[in-house]
User: Which sequence fits this backbone?
């Protein structure tokens, strides 16, 4: 069930009415409803993998209790590693088995050995990377004595499978979400309206910007030999907008839906394309994943406490693992490595924490230096996205070669002026709202009510006009 589908447009109001008008007198009843709704939401994709989600939930619920009750550290470590091994084992099988099998065969061939790889047709369970990380962080936090194990299986199950975040995040922490699940929730009209605004903005980004960019991007990337260098550049830039509006649009909808139900989820994006350097970009892009890797991989590896070489090593590990997390393809690993290389000069010069505040805070326009930083950072990011989008490394290299060998300064024939105007409109709204949690999140916007509601209705009409066949969100495949 997609957020941008008719089915979800019917599903959400039913859950909302039952949640606030039928089960509102009992917290337990509300949580049971959320669990049933979440399992139904997931089963609409493929009911067979619902059992994998339930098994993963049971595993981490039980191991969390056993870790907390272990007699000594050896037993604690045993149960911790049982959870880690089983969770990562499932993730490796479903997501990486064929990749490792084929890679082993290719490596053997390079050494002169002939190995017939055994591959299987594996369907990747939707959201497995996200709910696996939910469970792992919960178990590790118990092992580190940061939290106590949750005794209510219903409450813990809602934490793992809460439907707004189930299939594409944000990756939540038990310390943030579980207390909200266990606390009685009261309907807040202002928060509900704010949630609807964020849902509206998320749908606009997905349907009007991302899906329209996708048509041009797919055409050029799938048939790059027929297009000029300038059209390669345009397609690469449009993919940058596509993936941002697609993923951040999903996150906006997820946060808005959760707010309708009285729950606040972690923010996942903070206007990353207004970043002045790569370090700032990664503090603002997929925030929940970046912070997860920082807390559960980077810091345990030693973080920034060691010398420069340790910092460099740990930074490369984080980026390479982040790339591999996205998929079983060398293109993602190269994408991660490129970002690590971009990050390296800032790390060496100790300038990776220079730009901590949003650009031009309290000002209408950025300085020339800030504009240059934004353009350079965006250009580097667009180049790296070519590997992320390409089907293979050879396709990415061919695309880059064609970009520079074909006429770069020719007028792009396949140029979509209406889409360009929509992107400019989108950027203006994002820029105006950059100091708020999302672009329409300014509660004190200085426009009359009539103007604001006219703007919202215009966005609804725009979404309706551009809605075509249901387009899956890009991050569902991860």
Assistant:
């Amino acid at each position: 069930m997609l957020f941008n589908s008719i089915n979800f447009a019917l599903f959400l109001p039913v859950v909302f009415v039952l949640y606030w008008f039928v089960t509102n007198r009992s917290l337990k009843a509300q949580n049971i409803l959320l669990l049933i709704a979440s399992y139904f939401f997931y089963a609409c994709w493929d009911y067979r993998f619902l059992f994998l989600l339930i098994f993963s939930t049971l595993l981490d619920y039980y191991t969390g209790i056993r870790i907390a009750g272990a007699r000594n550290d050896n037993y604690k470590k045993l149960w911790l590693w049982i959870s880690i091994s089983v969770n990562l084992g499932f993730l490796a099988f479903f997501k990486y088995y064929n990749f490792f099998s084929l890679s082993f065969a290719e490596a053997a061939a390079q050494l002169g050995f002939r190995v017939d790889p055994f591959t299987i047709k594996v369907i990747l369970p939707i959201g497995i990377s996200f709910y696996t990380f939910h469970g792992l962080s919960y178990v590790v936090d118990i092992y580190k004595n940061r939290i106590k194990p949750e005794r209510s299986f219903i409450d813990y199950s809602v934490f793992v499978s809460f439907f707004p975040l189930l299939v594409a995040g944000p990756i939540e922490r038990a310390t943030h979400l579980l207390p909200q699940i266990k606390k009685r929730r009261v309907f807040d009209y202002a928060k509900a309206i704010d949630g609807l605004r964020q849902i509206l903005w998320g749908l606009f980004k997905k349907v009007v910007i991302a899906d329209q960019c996708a048509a041009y991007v797919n055409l050029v990337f799938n048939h790059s030999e027929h297009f000029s260098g300038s059209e390669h550049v345009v397609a690469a830039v449009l993919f940058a907008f596509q993936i941002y509006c697609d993923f951040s649009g999903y996150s906006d909808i997820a946060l808005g839906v959760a707010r309708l139900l009285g729950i606040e989820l972690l923010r996942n994006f903070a206007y990353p394309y207004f970043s002045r350097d790569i370090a700032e970009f990664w503090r603002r892009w997929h925030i929940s994943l970046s912070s997860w890797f920082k807390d559960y991989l980077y810091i345990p590896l030693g973080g920034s406490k060691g010398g420069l070489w340790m910092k460099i090593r740990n930074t490369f590990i984080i980026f390479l693992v982040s790339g591999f997390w996205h998929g079983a393809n060398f293109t993602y690993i190269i994408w991660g490595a490129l970002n690590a290389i971009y990050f390296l000069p800032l790390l060496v010069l100790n300038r990776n924490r220079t730009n901590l505040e949003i650009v031009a805070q309290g000002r209408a326009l950025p300085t020339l230096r800030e504009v240059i930083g934004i353009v350079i950072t965006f250009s580097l990011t667009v180049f790296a996205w070519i590997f992320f989008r390409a089907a293979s490394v050879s396709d990415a290299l061919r695309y880059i070669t064609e970009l520079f060998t074909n006429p770069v300064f020719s007028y792009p024939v396949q140029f979509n002026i209406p889409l360009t105007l929509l992107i400019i409109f989108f950027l203006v709204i994002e820029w105006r709202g950059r100091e708020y949690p999302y672009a329409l999140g300014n509660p004190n916007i200085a426009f009359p009510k009539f103007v604001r509601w006219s703007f919202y209705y215009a966005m609804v009409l725009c979404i309706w006009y551009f809605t075509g066949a249901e387009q899956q969100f890009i991050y569902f495949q991860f």
Notes: The chain has 17 helices and no strands. The radius of gyration is 23 Å. The mean pLDDT is 90.
